[in-house]
UniProtKB/TrEMBL annotation:
Domain ABC transporter: 2-196
UniProt name for this protein: ATP-binding cassette domain-containing protein
Family annotation (InterPro entries): ABC_transporter-like_ATP-bd, BCAA_Transport_ATP-bd_LivF, P-loop_NTPase
Domain of life: Bacteria
Keywords: Amino-acid transport, ATP-binding, Nucleotide-binding, Transport
Family that this chain belongs to: Belongs to the ABC transporter superfamily.
GO molecular function: ATP binding
């Protein structure tokens, strides 16, 4: 889902995750109508929201953050093997990590326990280009493992490499939706600036 600031992208994420009520339309999870389900029931059905702003507990250590999602020591060890920088710093507060390291900490456990659906709100926000590549590689790996992704971005470049379907949101409404192959520069301009070229 693409759109400029204020288009309603974060609100759509919260509605999809069940933390905001639906005011119109319906939400389906694995073909089942989940519109009336709250956030807890959707989470139990495998829907996970990775909110804008990393979604970690900054005062807890890296190890404590991982242990909240991964109870088994061997699952945490697999994360450390994949992300050695986290292993080196496992005893420090997560808030002391760089933005990219915080995003890796938030997403890395999902490789060990992939959710059915991951709703990622601006996963590349504020990250260096190299780190954005790492984040999107991780998201691609989750997609390839069977996780359904709802990715929300303000910038189109990153999302177009992974999306099957693209939707443009403008003032809380979908202004266009279709396959990635049909995304055109004119459509991007219209979606972001409200006019065609």
């Amino acid at each position: 889902m693409l759109g400029p600031n204020g288009a309603g992208k974060s609100t759509a994420c919260r509605v999809a995750a069940g933390s905001l009520p639906v005011t119109g339309g319906a939400v389906y999870v694995a073909g089942r109508d989940a519109t009336r389900d709250g956030a807890v029931r959707r989470a139990r059905a495998g829907v996970l929201l990775a909110p804008e702003g990393r979604g970690i507990f900054p005062a807890l250590t890296i190890e404590e953050n991982l242990a909240l999602y991964l109870k088994e020591a061997d699952a945490r060890a697999a994360v450390y093997a994949r992300f050695p920088r986290l292993a080196e710093r496992r005893g420090i507060p997560a808030g002391a990590l760089s933005g990219g390291e915080q995003q890796m900490l938030a997403l890395a456990p999902l490789l060990q326990r992939p959710p059915e659906v991951l709703i990622a709100d601006e996963p590349s926000l504020g990250l260096a280009p190299r780190v954005v590549e790492e984040v999107y590689a991780l998201l691609t790996e989750l997609r390839d493992a069977g996780t359904a992704l709802l990715l929300v971005e303000e910038k189109a470049a990153e999302i177009l490499g992974i999306a099957d379907t693209v939707a443009y949101l403008s003032q809380g409404r979908v202004s266009w939706c279709g396959p990635r192959a049909e995304v055109e520069a004119d459509r991007l301009t219209e979606a972001y600036l409200g006019m065609g070229t």
